[in-house]
Amino acid sequence: MRALPFAYIFFFRGTPLLVQIFLIYYGASQFEAVKQSVFWNVLSEPYWCAIIAFSMNTAAYSAELIRGAIQAIPRGELEAAEALGMSRPLQVRRIVLPRAFGIVLPAYGNELILMLKGSSLASTITLLDLTGMARTIIARTYTPLEIFFAAGMIYLLISACFIGGFRLLERRLNRYQHYRHHIPHEMAEVDPRLQD
């Protein structure tokens, strides 16, 4: 059972995104069975081929991020849940998933930003994204420096919005850490053990 996801993650993490886009867009048309199937309406469009390639690529990276986050949960927390009599599904719902989500959030934000920047590769399969539109404008105006700089600034602005959004979400999800630091000072008179 582990071989299939391992092979999937190994392939998509080990090969360049550009090669994956080419394999889906140009490779699918090499098979007559694909051309005769219902999937050809989707695989013949560069937009959907790019979406499929980006989704499969980011799914492989996200799977590794989530696996690492789950393994990073301290064993003591799960042992404490078992001591309280929690069933395994309840542990997953109340401890594993919330803790893993908080751990994985910064790394997943980086993955989304990398995928945003990787979207510029979609212009290689005739898709007019931001980079493709910049190339079209350059062909008309012969001003590559200004146009590519403007495109870079747009990517930077979108990335800044992603970064700000993820920082707010991370701060909101990890509020308990800030609260935990204030408890010993406020509650020390009630129970001195809370200072530890």
What does it look like?
The protein is 78% helix and 0% strand. By secondary structure, the chain is an all-alpha fold. The protein folds into 2 domains: 1-110, MetI-like fold (Orthogonal Bundle); 128-196, no CATH class. Helix 2 crosses helix 5, helix 6 packs antiparallel against helix 7 and helix 7 packs antiparallel against helix 9 (144-173). Mean pLDDT is 87; it is low at 178-196.
Task: Please provide a brief summary of the model.
The chain has 196 residues and is mainly α. The chain has helices spanning 3-14, 17-27, 32-36, 40-43, 46-71, 75-83, 88-118, 130-141, 144-173, 175-187. The chain crosses the membrane at residues 6-26, 96-116, 147-169.
Described by strand count, sense and barrel closure, the largest sheet is: none
Number of helices: 10
CATH class of the largest domain: Mainly Alpha
Radius of gyration: 23 Å
Order of helices and strands: HHHHHHHHHH
Number of domains: 2
Proportion in β-strands:
under 5%
CATH superfamily of the largest domain: MetI-like
**What is the rounded distance between the termini?**
44 Å
CATH topology of the largest domain: MetI-like fold
Amount of helix: over 70%
What ranges have pLDDT less than 50 throughout 5 or more consecutive residues? 178-196
Structural class: mainly alpha
CATH architecture annotation name of the largest domain: Orthogonal Bundle
Compute the average pLDDT: 87
Strand tally is 0
Shape: flat
Subcellular location: Cell inner membrane; Cell membrane
Keywords: Amino-acid transport, Cell inner membrane, Cell membrane, Membrane, Transmembrane, Transmembrane helix, Transport
Membrane topology: Multi-pass membrane protein
Main location: membrane
